[in-house]
Write a sequence for this structure.
C-alpha cells in the first residue's frame, strides 16, 4: 500500500462527495447517516470563491508511482504517479476557502471576538484576509502517520491570505490528535470555549499567520 496526496477539483469533489463524507463521518465517529445532513453544505462550499480541497488516496500496487507524490514528501510537489488515482480509495480529505463577510462562520467568529473584547481594528485586520480550514479528516486506520499534517501543508501551500483560521471542539487538556497537530503547526488561541449558534459543544477558534 502507498498513499498519495492529490488536489480535488470541484468536479472531482462532487463526484467523490459520498466517499469524502464517509471519511468525515468515520473520522469524527459520527453515526452513519450524518453524511446526508452534511452533503448539501459541502456542495455549497465547493462553489465558494477560492475553495480548495486535497485528499489522501491509497494505492495497492504503486508500481510506476513517482515517490515524490507520496505523503510526507514536498507538499508543493504536483508530481503524480503513472497509476490512475481517480478511483483510488480516499483515506483523508481536507478543504477550505477564503473567509468573507456574509458567511455564517465568519459572522459567528466576529461575534465571539466582539464578546471577548477584541477592538474593532483587530477584528477587521484578521477578518480581512484569512483562509478558513473548514474540514480535515483522516480515516481512523490511517491516523497517526503524518497524513493530517501533509494534507494541511498541501492545502495551505501558496495561499495568498494573511492568516488561516479553524475551529475545533474543545477537549480536556487538548489531548487529541487534532489539537497536537494544530499546536505543532503553530496555531494559537483566537477564542476559547466558544459556542456556535445551534451547537451545544464548546469550540476553540485557532489561527496563525500564513505562509505556514
Ligand atoms: C486530526 C487528524 C486530521 C490528524 O491527522 P493524523 O494523520 O492522524 O495526524 P498527524 O498528521 O498529526 O500525524 C502525526 C502523528 O503521527 C505520528 N507520525 C508517525 N509518522 C509520522 C511522519 N512520518 N510524519 C509525521 N508524523 C508522523 C506523529 O508522532 C504524530 O503522533 P501524535 O498525533 O500522537 O502526536 C486525524 O487524526 C483525524 O481525522 N481525527 C479525527 C477527526 C478530527 O478530529 N478532525 C479535525 C476536526 S477539527
Amino acid at each position: 500500500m502507498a498513499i498519495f496526496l492529490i488536489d480535488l477539483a470541484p468536479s472531482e469533489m462532487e463526484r467523490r462527495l459520498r466517499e469524502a463524507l464517509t471519511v468525515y463521518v468515520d473520522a469524527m465517529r459520527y453515526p452513519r447517516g450524518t453524511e446526508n445532513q452534511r452533503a448539501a453544505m459541502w456542495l455549497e462550499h465547493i462553489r465558494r470563491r477560492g475553495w480548495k480541497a486535497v485528499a489522501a488516496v491509497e494505492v495497492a500496487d504503486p508500481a510506476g508511482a513517482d515517490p515524490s507524490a507520496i505523503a510526507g514528501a514536498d507538499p508543493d510537489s504536483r508530481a503524480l504517479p503513472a497509476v490512475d488515482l481517480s478511483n483510488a480509495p480516499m483515506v483523508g480529505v481536507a478543504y477550505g476557502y477564503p473567509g468573507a463577510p456574509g458567511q455564517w462562520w465568519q459572522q459567528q467568529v466576529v461575534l465571539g471576538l466582539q464578546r471577548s473584547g477584541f477592538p474593532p481594528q483587530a477584528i477587521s485586520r484578521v477578518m480581512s484576509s484569512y483562509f478558513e480550514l473548514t474540514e480535515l479528516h483522516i480515516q481512523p486506520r490511517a491516523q497517526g502517520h503524518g497524513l493530517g499534517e501533509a494534507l494541511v501543508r498541501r492545502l495551505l501551500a501558496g495561499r495568498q491570505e494573511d492568516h488561516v483560521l479553524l475551529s475545533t471542539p474543545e477537549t480536556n487538556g487538548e489531548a487529541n490528535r487534532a489539537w497536537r497537530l494544530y499546536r505543532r503547526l503553530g496555531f494559537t488561541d483566537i477564542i476559547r470555549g466558544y459556542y456556535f449558534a445551534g451547537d451545544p459543544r464548546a469550540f476553540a477558534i485557532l489561527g496563525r499567520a500564513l505562509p505556514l
Residues 27-28, 72, 136-138, 143-149, 168, 177-178, 180-181 surround coenzyme A (CB under 6 Å). The chain is about 35% helix and 25% strand.
